[in-house]
Amino acid sequence: MKTPTIPIPITQIPLQKNIQLFLKREDLIHAQISGNKYWKLFYNINSYLDQNSQNPFIITFGGAFSNHIAAVAALGKEYQLKTLGIIRGEELQDKWQENPTLKLAYQNGMDFLFVTREEYRDKDAITQILQKEVPDALFIPEGGTNEHAVEGIQFMLNSETKRFDYLCTAVGTGGTIAGISKFAEENQKVLGFKVVDDHSLYNKVFELSTKNNFELIEAHDGKYGKITDENIRFINDFKKNFGIQLDPIYTGKMMKKIFEMIEEDYFPKGSKILAFHTGGLQGIFGANELLKKQNRELIRF
Fold this sequence. Notes:
Keywords: Pyridoxal phosphate. It comes from Kaistella flava. This is Pyridoxal-phosphate dependent enzyme. One of its GO terms (molecular function) is D-cysteine desulfhydrase activity. The protein is an alpha/beta fold. It has 2 domains: about 10-30 and about 155-295, Rossmann fold (3-Layer(aba) Sandwich); about 35-145, 3-Layer(aba) Sandwich (Rossmann fold). It has helices at about 35-50, 65-80, 100-105, 115-120, 125-135, 145-150, 175-185, 200-210, 230-240, 250-265, 285-295; strands at about 10-15, 20-25, 55-60, 80-90, 110-115, 140, 165-170, 190-195, 215-220, 270-275. The strands form 2 sheets. The chain has a 6-stranded mixed β-sheet, sandwiched between helices. A 4-stranded parallel β-sheet has the order 5-4-3-6. The longest helix has 16 residues, at about 35-50. The chain is globular, with a radius of gyration of 19 Å. It starts with 9 loop residues before the first strand and ends in an 8-residue tail after the last helix. About 45% of the residues are buried.
């Protein structure tokens, strides 16, 4: 993987407050390997290919609508790597073609292994079995979070990001906020907006970042992947008002919560806030399929 040469824009979101809010458009870094996924895979893939240039094989884990699965499949196609996705939910085996994320991953060359939710919880056991069959394969954890991923996230920070008081990101598996925390300036506060109800996240992030400059804020509406009517309205209004598309699982929930915190005067006057758009827009297609079946308002995309 190459370091992109295109500049990533930082766009101001106009507010009627004595606070400045900006959005760094990491979603524009690549058409399919978007946002934080690109940087989480950067060192994982490059260090692996340095040692395994012959018949490289990437194996990873994810759910039916996983941005990570979509990104790894796209990376495999672009760099001619064989990829295998271990997919949670054996019921998908006979109908994965109906799933927009898995269909796209398959079109990009990914093979699938569908496992039960119980089997999926023991990823170490699955890894041990497959390592015996393909010992030279690279195993990347769910969401791509590991030490290599944390190191790659440093590229989301640059000379421009140093001028902000707060750095904000959505949090799933914790790799992105760990990287931002690790490489942030000493005077910066890092805010992570949890989209999953996982009480182990703080310790996991701290172990990866080794800093206590971050705060985790609940933004999951009680369940990972839950999309409320209020979320949909916020995303559609945000697109209409600011011309920027948000996804319903990560960045949409983060931005909604940031707006609420601004109204609640969480941020001191004069604060400069930078939120990272971590991509994941491919998930809108799957979300809209579910919303359509429920006769609910769709995300305009």
